[in-house]
Amino acid sequence: METLEFIIYPDGRVQEKVTGIVGASCAEVTAAIEAQLGQVLNHEPTSEYFAAKVQQSNVANTHTTYSDW
């Protein structure tokens, strides 16, 4: 499940935490929000950021040869 969590501090700072999004696509998800919030002071990538998506293919390649034996 994809989750965006925001903590708003009394001094106006906003902490954003993204979970459930694998890879760097979390930056695409949060870009518009960050642009509206203002200056980004710090990024701390999580292990999910560095994880790779696993994709399984259902395609099987077969090669048939015939012998003259």
How are the SSEs ordered, and which strands pair?
Blueprint: E1 3-8, E2 14-19, H1 25-37, H2 47-50
Antiparallel strand pairs: 1-2
Explain what you see:
The protein has 69 residues and is α+β, with helices and mostly antiparallel strands. It has a domain at 3-50. 25% of the residues lie in helices and 17% in strands. Strands 1-2 form a two-stranded antiparallel sheet. The termini are far apart. The mean pLDDT is 82.
Task: Give a quick summary of the entry.
The protein has 69 residues and is α+β, with helices and mostly antiparallel strands. It has helices at residues 25-37, 47-50, and strands at residues 3-8, 14-19. It has a domain at 3-50.
List keywords for this structure.
alpha+beta; two-stranded antiparallel ribbon; rod-shaped
Multimeric organization: single chain
SSE topology string:
EEHH
Major β-sheet profile? 2 strands, antiparallel
Strand numbers in spatial order across the main sheet: 1-2
What portion of residues belong to β-strands?
A: 15-25%
Distance between the amino and carboxyl termini? 58 Å
Low-confidence runs (pLDDT<50, min 5 residues)? none
Please state the CA-atom Rg, rounded to the nearest Å: 22 Å
Strand element count: 2
Number of helices, counting only DSSP H or I runs of 4 residues or more: 2
Mean of pLDDT = 82
Shape assignment: rod-shaped
